[in-house]
Amino acid sequence: MDSDTLKKVLDYVDNHITEKIGLGDLSKIAGYSPFYFSKQFSETMGMPPTGYIRIRKLQYAIVPLLEGQKVLDVALMYAFDSHEGFTRAFTKLFGSTPSTVRKYLTAYTVPEYVVPNGKNREVNRAMKHENDLQHNMNQLVFEVLKESLEEARKGFCTQMEVTFLSDDVVKISDNGRGLPLSDDLHASKEVLDKILAGRPVTNAQYSQMGDLIQSGMQTVNSLCESLHISATRNNHRFEQDYVRGVAQHEIIVSESSGKSGTSVVLKPDQAIFGSTVFSRKEIVDWLTEKAADLPGLTVKFSHDA
User: Fold this and answer.
1) Are 207 and 124 spatial neighbours (Cβ–Cβ below 8 Å)?
2) Which pTM was predicted?
3) Which domain holds residue 197?
4) What's the CA angle centered on 209, arms 110 and 215, to 5 degrees?
């Protein structure tokens, strides 16, 4: 399917996003039979038309949710048959219920669609190559490690530990100052939002992202199926859990007699990375090389799996 035809189809989907969009409507725009159109669309976009329409509807649905509209009203607005069906599809795609996203997602803009050309499709196929997926998974860990290394460069961190857990979960901890959180939960939420708050990323969006070098912690959090952060500071421990960048509850605060520091436990999103596993050697080699320039820093690696 040529780019101009595909653009007309994608424009139609966005312009009629609150309506029931049938395969026949789209095939007429493309000038193909429904069967041939479905085949061409799937080959070009990497998913069937019905799957693409569902993703776009759910992406658009986040906006009125954040504006405070009721879940049922949003479900009907985007032509879902029921509250339950909408919630099920939404949770499957984004990992969090519509109610959780409405309460804890800080901001969201519907992403622009991308019309793949021949080069895009080659990039998309390459992104699915196991080595590239593994490289980007490791980048998620590197971004977290950079935060601890920066604390060490400033003279506030003398110990780091990386623990490889089961099911491709990695824990990174340090004895730095801990995040600047306090009993003022509103201010603490703003700090965490600025550092970590992300947004759900679909597989289709990820395929257009390219290399994740210098991606930043918000992108890291968005690409994690789960991320738990625990920061100890001023005799208090602050904890928060995220799913694909969205906080799952209010900040948990408890008293702690432990030393200051930060711990991050992350699991990359299997909906994006599939069965890819971390390269432990690459992570160990990367951190060992970076820590060599910091003689006052002790680095420990452990394996619980």
Assistant:
1) yes
2) 0.88
3) 129-303
4) 100
